[in-house]
């Protein structure tokens, strides 16, 4: 049985471009998190969301993101990521 890898290659160009842009925005977000000594597989939004109730910069960022986009923190938190962070 041949292995079939599912891709978005068959999608309309606008969908493909949208997914391409989203994938790259997530990659840049995770790169920024890694540069800030976070887990390279976690977004800044997720890292900040874990600090939501803390009186630190990450908590402040999470609360600001929730003001701009209500529910952003709960939507973006990745509870299975963060184990490779060098700083919380
Ligand atoms: Ca991830």
**Residues in β-strands, percent:** under 5%
The N- and C-terminal alpha carbons lie at a distance of 45 Å
Which descriptor suits the 3D outline?
A: globular
DSSP summary: helix tally = 4
Share in helix: 40-55%
Please tell me how large the radius of gyration is: 16 Å
Keywords:
88 residues; mainly alpha; 4 helices; binds calcium ion
What report would you give on this structure?
The protein is mainly α. It has a domain at 16-76. 52% of the residues lie in helices and 0% in strands. It is built from 4 helices and no strands. It starts with 12 loop residues before the first helix and ends in a 12-residue tail after the last helix. 15% of the residues are buried. The model has no long low-confidence stretch (mean pLDDT 93).
């Amino acid at each position: 049985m041949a292995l079939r890898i599912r891709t978005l290659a068959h999608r309309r160009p606008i969908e493909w471009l949208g997914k391409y842009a989203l994938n790259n925005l997530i990659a840049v977000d995770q790169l920024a998190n890694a540069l800030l000594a976070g887990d390279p597989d976690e977004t800044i939004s997720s890292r900040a969301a874990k600090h939501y109730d803390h009186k630190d910069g990450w908590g402040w960022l999470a609360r600001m993101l929730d003001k701009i986009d209500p529910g952003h923190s709960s939507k973006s938190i990745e509870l299975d990521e963060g184990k490779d962070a060098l700083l919380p």
